[in-house]
Amino acid sequence: MSGLTLKGLRKAYGAAQVIKGVDLEILPEEFVVFVGPSGCGKSTLLRMIAGLESISGGDLFIGGRRVNDVDASQRGIAMVFQSYALYPHMTVRENMGFALKFAGASKTEITAKVDAAAAILGLGALMDRKPRDLSGGQRQRVAIGRAIVREPQVFLFDEPLSNLDAELRVHMRIEIARLHQDLKATIIYVTHDQIEAMTLADKIVVLREGRVEQTGSPLKLYDDPDNIFVAGFIGSPKMNFLSARVQGGRLVLPELADQSLPLPALQQALPEGAQVTLGLRPDVFKRGGSASLSLTIEIVEQLGGETFAYARVGGSAQIMTIAVEDGRALRPGQALVASFDPARALLFDTDGQRLR
Ligand SMILES: Nc1ncnc2c1ncn2[C@@H]1O[C@H](COP(=O)(O)OP(=O)(O)OP(=O)(O)O)[C@@H](O)[C@H]1O
Ligand SMILES: [Mg+2]
User: Fold this and answer.
1) Contact 250, 263 (CB under 8 A)
2) Nearest partner of 78 among 163, 186, 169, 178, judged by Cα
3) What is the pLDDT of residue 352?
4) Do residues 146 and 95 touch, judged by C-beta distance below 8 A?
5) Whether pLDDT at 171 is above 90
6) Which atom of ligand 1 lies closest to the CA of 46?
7) What is the pLDDT of residues 146-170, one digit of tens each?
């Protein structure tokens, strides 16, 4: 399996810059997930790697070879789309074997490779059906099978599971994780789904407006984000952000009736009066700790195993999401003292950069 190197990769449509200089190292056999808001350039970047979109600037290397001007069919890549893109008039077997047939492979070779892929994906019983007679999950499995038979160096997936219902998504997510283990494939995967990103990725790349905001393991991005954008984007429910000012060695929170908290330990000293943003993940409140906020509960969400309380200080606009351990007895209108370990609070400067 090949790794990839992206060096200052750019894409412009006329005057519109869409990819604005992306540098990225993807290791052989790595599972890399691209996330970011709609329109940030995830699909464009994937299509540039696939060779479906020309490269306006920078260099793309696959397995050490510069491929900017190499035809898509010669890049050793297979792509799976959200829309499956199966041939409706062909059976599952014909769909899966088409690329090999097109490349002039022998019948024996096609049968062997298609059967092997079908076994991996549990498609054996469906080989003579047409796509219209398959469920969404089965169609997507055929699309993945079509990619596997080509034995690519790199698999590209663009939101492959977003047309599936919730249960099937979970099932297919586990299949994709298994596929990665079995094939030891290099995979680049685009998704809007937080859980897919967190569970599948060796490395997540957070994109914003055509640039990389941060790259790292899922837990690195969750625990140690470089800026407010990454902190807010990774994690569901989202991190709480509160404006705060440094006063007398504490953090005063004007949006929460001037309650104050101990200042988290930082490598740098913050001057008296400094304005900062405090970031607290909902789950920091699960384990309690020496810092606390007094709030009033407005809404309670019971998920069975988990409870989320949405709470604020009377009159303030700032609503906090609090994950509560054993929260089944919580009711709207109740007072809630949400306590946490101040070491788990993150601070950001007025430009949104992390203060460490
Ligand atoms: N052919 C094109 N001409 C002009 N602009 C384009 C073209 N294709 C894409 N764009 C623009 O490039 C930007 C990135 O699009 P892209 O499809 O890569 O976003 P995305 O991150 O995949 O979004 P989504 O999550 O909605 O799929 C968008 O602003 C889009 O409008
Ligand atoms: Mg897209």
Assistant:
1) yes
2) 186
3) 97
4) yes
5) no
6) 18
7) 999 998 999 999 999 988 888 888 8
Cβ of residue 42 lying under 6 Å from some atom of ligand 1:
yes
| pLDDT at position 83 | 86
Q: In this structure, which residue's CA is closest to atom 31 in ligand 1?
A: 39
Q: What is the dihedral of CA 252, 255, 258, 259, to 10 degrees?
A: -80
- Of the bound ligands, which one is closest to the alpha carbon of residue 34? 1
Which residue's CA is the closest to the ligand 1 atom numbered 9? 44
pTM of the model: 0.94
Q: Is the minimum distance from the CB of 41 to ligand 1 under 6 angstroms?
A: yes
Burial, 152: exposed, middle or buried (Cβ in 10 Å; 0-12, 13-18, 19+)? buried
Q: Is the pLDDT of residue 27 over 90?
A: yes
The finding on whether 269 has its CB within 6 A of some atom of ligand 1 is no
Q: Is 44 in the pocket of ligand 1 (CB under 6 A)?
A: yes
Ligand nearest to the CA of 41: 1
CB of 13 closer than 6 angstroms to any ligand 1 atom: yes
| 16 close to ligand 1 (CB < 6 Angstrom) | yes
Predicted pLDDT of residue 265: 87
Find the helix packing angle between 92-102 and 107-121, rounded to 10°.
130
- For residue 168, the model assigns a pLDDT of 82
Domain residue spans in the chain?
4-233, 240-355
Which protein residue has the closest C-alpha to ligand 1 atom 29? 39
pLDDT of 1 higher than 90 = no
Please choose, from the candidates 28, 11, 29, the residue with its C-alpha nearest in 3D space to the C-alpha of residue 20: 11
Task: Please give the distance, rounded to the nearest whole angstrom, from the Cα atom of residue 189 to the centre of ligand 2.
Answer: 11
Q: Residue 323's pLDDT band (boundaries 50, 70, 90)? A: very high
CA-wise closest residue to 144 among 103, 104, 177: 177
**Ligand positioned closest to the Cα atom of 47:** 1
* Domain 4-233 CATH (choose: 3.90.105.10, 1.10.3570.10, 3.40.50.300, 3.40.50.720): 3.40.50.300
Give the pLDDT of residue 85.
87
pLDDT, position 120 = 84
